[in-house]
Structures are given as structure tokens and as C-alpha cells.
């Protein structure tokens, strides 16, 4: 993945994908030119994705996919958290504000 942020929080999301998660390669965006990306920069990013850096990013993404799937399975962390929330709402321990 080569994130191309255009506005709002997309710049932060792109940074997290590259620096924190390691599932993307950076793409230099010229904010002064309406988020323009030079052809050479796009080529560089695509070549990175096709090479070793891209292989590592794909491996990391596959690892994260597996962790996320386990979390939403029956008994996983997300499933358990949603169950606890449902029980708390049902028991009146948490009152939703609308």
C-alpha cells in the first residue's frame, strides 16, 4: 500500500500505516501543490512495493489480518468486549446518551 493522503486526518492515517504499523511505503506528497505526487515519486513507491519493502509490508498486513480475525471470532477480545457492553447496557449499568 502507498497511502496518498488528500485532506483531514488522512495525513495522520498515512503516517500510522507507514511508521507505526509498517504495512505501507511512504509517498511524498507536495501539499503546496494541492497534494500533487510526481510521476517519479509514484514510480519509486510502486517499485518499493514490488521489492523487499513491499514483501515485508504484505507480511505485516497478513499478521495483522490474522490478529484481527481472532479478535472478532467467538471468544476473541472484540467479541468479549462487545458482549460485556451488551450486558452492561442490558443491566442498566451504562446509559447511552443521545
TrEMBL record:
<keyword id="KW-0808">Transferase</keyword>
<dbReference type="GO" id="GO:0035251">
    <property type="term" value="F:UDP-glucosyltransferase activity"/>
</dbReference>
<protein>
    <submittedName>
        <fullName>UDP-glycosyltransferase 71C4</fullName>
    </submittedName>
</protein>
<dbReference type="InterPro" id="IPR050481">
    <property type="entry name" value="UDP-glycosyltransf_plant"/>
</dbReference>
Amino acid at each position: 500500500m502507498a497511502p496518498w493522503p488528500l485532506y483531514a486526518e488522512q495525513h495522520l492515517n498515512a503516517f500510522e500505516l507507514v511508521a507505526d504499523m509498517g504495512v505501507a511505503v511512504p509517498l511524498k506528497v507536495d501539499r503546496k501543490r494541492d497534494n500533487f505526487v510526481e510521476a517519479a515519486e509514484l514510480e519509486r513507491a510502486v517499485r518499493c512495493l514490488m521489492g523487499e519493502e513491499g514483501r515485508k509490508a504484505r507480511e505485516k498486513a497478513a499478521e495483522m489480518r490474522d490478529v484481527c480475525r481472532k479478535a472478532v471470532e467467538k471468544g476473541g477480545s472484540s467479541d468479549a468486549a462487545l458482549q460485556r457492553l451488551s450486558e452492561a447496557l442490558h443491566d442498566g449499568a451504562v446509559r447511552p446518551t443521545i
